Structure prediction request, 401 residues.
Amino acid sequence: MIVLVLNSGSSSLKYQLFDTEKEERITKGLVEKIGGREAIFSYERGEDGKFKEVHGIYDHSEALNLVLTSLVSEENSILEDINQIAAIGHRVVHGGEKFTESVIVDDQVLAEIRECIDLAPLHNPANLQGIEVCIKLLPDIPQVVVFDTAFHHSMPDYAYFYGLPYIMYNRHRIRRYGFHGTSHRYVTNRAVELLGKTEKTTSLVSCHLGNGSSVCAVRNGKSVDTSMGFTPLAGLVMGTRCGDIDPAIITHIMSKEELSLHEVNSMLNKHSGLLGISGITNDVRELFEQMEEKDYRASLAINMLVYQLRKYICSYLGVLGGADAIVFTAGIGENSFYVREQALAGLEFMGIKVDKRKNRLLSNEGIVSTVDSAIAVYVIPTNEELVIARDTAQIVKKKKK
Prediction:
């Protein structure tokens, strides 16, 4: 089955085209800076490599039209006809308490995604816009939505409740939801394969480390706790997000700095984290360069990330009562041997032993722990789009039966 996977942002549209029978990606691309005369369309063209074009693209409908035209153009020769696309899979960040698994799109689903906008005002509107554009342009092709929050619905109530008056939950559904669920789900399934175990007998700590980062405790293949909370702001210090802080700090700063709700929200989400601490950048690669130049604040930012990551890993190993593996994934997790090494430094007393040579030389998927490590340590490149493609194909096939 040919499945088009879409991830719609406020001014971007990412896509990947899959052959789900072979589990192979056919092509991928990105339209960014939607809304102006200099939108950028980057895409793959088979063995010819990568290409970049500049277009005037003023909305997501025009962006999707450009993508579809590219897929069937004689120059690209990817599809003979757009109707070869059997289904479309969409990433949606927040499914609230309603959606515990991926679902096929209908009017009720769209209405319930709209209801979740209040929980994810930065992401769900853009995700919803992508779905609505597809309904308009490709009305006869079935569509499926895959939610980032769905994987974490297996958390027990004592893990997802906050110590607030219970009425806040009843009125506003204030609770831990967790995010990056599609990524944590992918690396969990892949770790099960690498360990040679079954999902029901596998426990692990999954570390998704990128500009946004989260850690997930997985018992018997199911999420039982995760570092992100009601929003993606909680947990580890991130690229521009503050992570866990004393909540009283917010009202204190608002009072001292005379900040509005909008201003303090912007500070916590866009001007904090590695960027706020270093005063330089949220790019870990650049921070490492500055560390080598003995920049104190760059070093502080990296050391905070590593320290907090170690705390979460140890905390979740306690929750799980031990684990089969610790998994690192996403941009930082896959590429920074230093973060992996330092996050696990000093944990030999727990039987965790990193093979420093393997860890430093690894360039893709693999194990970086020693042969006698009590807990295996893996690097597994994430593939959220493949999960979306798999779910989409499975749900559409089931509906046709």
Summary: The chain has 15 helices and 14 strands. The domain at 196-384 is CATH 3.30.420.40 (Nucleotidyltransferase; domain 5). The radius of gyration is 22 Å.
